[in-house]
């Protein structure tokens, strides 16, 4: 490793991971979320039921010209690379800030900024779940580089007494883009405010640039506010209900914390601990405030986790923790405390490689098909094409599924055939396709991984359903799942009034 500089090794490591992402991106079909956000691009709007619009707007050019999953996935891959580069840059900025604000033994004990940057990048590459977001575009994939960009701007503000108007404009644009990415960008905006408030004096309040940045951010998110105003604020109502989850339980909280450590890796946790232990003493309050980019969103999501939560929600926060973890690990490495770091790094990379192989293999099936989570990534393209052919042949109103998670893949791979959701939960499909008309005939698609009985009966479903065909999905000789296609006639189900 001594033959290359830390910067070179950071670039080499990112490129190797990017090649793996690129290969996987062309090898597997869309997940439920990817298909859902690709449909955003197909149905351009000012905003959407469950998320702001940037995740759809950004994909629109590629969705217009291609339906290739691998090509569309170049967007999250590019965002992941940008995030890694920003992690490196933020680490160097934090290192310089510490060097400029502290004196004595601490500054002399810190390794070079480039070494710290390399360590920070390695913590991200060795973390399992960021690879998922590097292949599939989610709002969190967008929010990660934007949060790091805002963190870099706040560091520039802390280190520079002359924050230019252009700097304020960049900050406002980043805040606006973050707001267009995900509603939880409010936590990142709060972290920015905490850093500003941590300074002994508050000259920014009277600066024209600050108010221009605020106006720019508000103007950029105005499409989301207008769309929600025109649609009875359904996104905010949904997010408040979704975030609160179900009944709060301590065991859910404990499980969430354990899963967080597993999917982001103990290397990040160790590095953060070492930074707090060795590098935080004698620093200004502003350095502690910078940790708010991790602490604020992580604390909020963790406190809500007792009612339920998804592990990838905290991804931007962990990216923002990586610079501090990199400095902590580099300092421990320079003092010959290397064995634990080596073991954790190698173990996590091996775990990531096993995960890649597991996905490509199609998973491991048991007697119960539902037990294989990877089965969800295979077969939907063939099933969607077959459903479209049957729907056209039978001249039905559209395709029906029981749940929106089934509807996203069906709608993407069977487009432009309309897809109707039969459950009574309000979702984005109510805005795209509306409710299934009374008396309609449809092609009912059922998947073995989330199987439902055919809804038959007056005031509850269809008058009659007739089995048409079955599609069995196999990979490397093992059965992953099965799709059933039925012709259902005369819909008599209930009409939702909301």
Radius of gyration: 25 Å
Structure annotation, total helices: 24
Number of strands: 5
Strand order, biggest sheet?
A: 2-1-3-5-4
Helix content: 55-70%
Biggest sheet statistics: 5 strands, mixed
- What gross morphology would you assign? globular
Write down the overall mean pLDDT.
89
Low-confidence stretches: none
The structural domain count equals: 2
Q: Which H/E pattern describes the elements? A: HHHHHHHHHHHHHHHHHHHHHHEHEHEEE
Through-space gap between termini: 62 Å
Q: Kindly estimate the percentage of residues that lie in beta strands according to DSSP.
A: 5-15%
Describe the model.
With 498 residues, this protein is an alpha/beta fold. It has two domains: 354 residues, no CATH class; 119 residues. The protein is 62% helix and 8% strand. The chain contains 24 helices and five strands. A five-stranded mixed beta sheet has the order 2-1-3-5-4, covered by helices on one side. It is globular and about 75 Å long. 44% of the residues are buried.
Summarize the topology.
Layout (H helix, E strand, L loop, with lengths): L5 H22 L4 H11 L11 H4 L2 H6 L3 H4 L1 H28 L3 H5 L3 H13 L2 H8 L3 H21 L5 H17 L3 H14 L9 H13 L1 H9 L3 H11 L5 H15 L1 H14 L5 H6 L1 H13 L10 H20 L4 H23 L18 H15 L3 E4 L2 H10 L5 E3 L6 H5 L9 E6 L14 E14 L2 E14 L7
